[in-house]
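ESCALATION

Customer reports they have been waiting on this structure for their group meeting. Please prioritize. Original submission:
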Amino acid sequence: PADIRVLERGPARVALEVVRRHHRATSLQRVLLSAGEAGDRLECAMEIDWHERGRLLKAVFPLSASNPRATFDLGLGAVERGNARPTSYEVPAQQWADLTDRSDEYGVAILSDSRYGWNKPDDNTLRLSLLRSPWTWRKFSHQATQDHGRHRTTWALAGHAGSWAESDTTWQAARLNQPLLAFAVEPGPGPLGSGFSLLTVSDPAVAVRALKRAEDGDGWVLRLQELRGRASEVAVECVAPVTSVTEVDGMEEPLERQRLGGSLHLSFSRFQPRSLILGLEPPMHRLEPTRSQPLPLPDLEAAASRQGRPVRFDDEGRSFPAELMPRRLDLGGVELELAAGGAACRCSGQQLSLPEGEWERLWMVACSLGGDRTARFEIDGRELELTVGDWRESLGYWRRRRWGKILPGRIRRHAVAFYASHGHDAQGADEPYEFRYLFRYSLPLAAGARELRLPDEPRIRLFAMTVASGGPGAADPAAPIYG
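Update from on-call: job pushed to the front of the queue and completed.
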């Protein structure tokens, strides 16, 4: 039996909440249907508290469409598979699976944001694997609690006319997996108007998979892929005139000689990916560059060690790995220089003079030891409070059990400036998957600010500081708006 209640009843969206309890598992489903184009699919957001043993949990979709074959997304293409057999039962798919009726008049795509195991037991049914805790013997007893704990996943149903290739199934799945994000930013003069696009592709049968700066040179790497399994031709328009085009492989090595730019018309075979390096004319509008000047840090102490040469950064003798520590960090147009060898300043109330000039913001790279620490920085007598994140603690985790106690889950919303994929222990040896973090922070500076007093908190360590003015570095960083 399920507990069902109406969660939302508004003009933009309606929602049902469905709660089920079974043995040692509880699931909460929010079934959502929105107005407008967001209503092209029915979504189900699930939260599952799972403690079953010897069980496989699947979402079952009995459909009116009937076909002995279904189509499964491979990421770089799609493949048709038949009904399950004893030798081919569970099959993989990336973001969607589709059952189109054998009449080819209509079908249903099932979209998934984070689950990749599927099966098709008969002509009318698709099933999506959600969680599994297997029966085990003594040798593999640790696997009996696999997937135990809290999980969050979303799936969706998207109906369509014709076959999946004639629909927007791939785009629906992309919208589910990469939803739009909203950011709060400071208003600007807006010389580019209310709308701006880096590039436009003439046909949605071809998708932009990446747009990035080239690893070498000043070009832009554009990666495209055909989505529907048929030959396509598209025109690509860029924000600036194209001066040169070079087709490259995944390593950005040229596949053909460079040719002159102009209009960009491309042909694709079924599911073909193509990568190009584009040369573009300089932009018509440029942001004011950020001016910055670093502050020398006093009382530097070693914070990073090399293999077999330990450094006592915290009370337990752990440290950052020197082989991964950067010398410079670019934080939104502001470049901060770290001390050689990864040295850091232990905050003990030191007083620093700010550089002469009109500066708008003070940037710093810092971390704390032994948990997050809240401290007060003082600028010309004005106190500004800042919470600095712990260098070893996870950025986020679910509710978990430790020494018989249930600890609540949390998300730490410190902006990461740098992370190391491993650390060093008290003997200078690697600690794999023991992440180390440095965070970025900024404080506003009043006109003519001259003196900075660091907090008297020795567990806060500063790795770099700089003052900045103008351009993006003087503005508050764009921050996502959390729901």
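Sent to customer with the following note: The two ends are 31 Å apart (CA to CA).
Escalation resolved.
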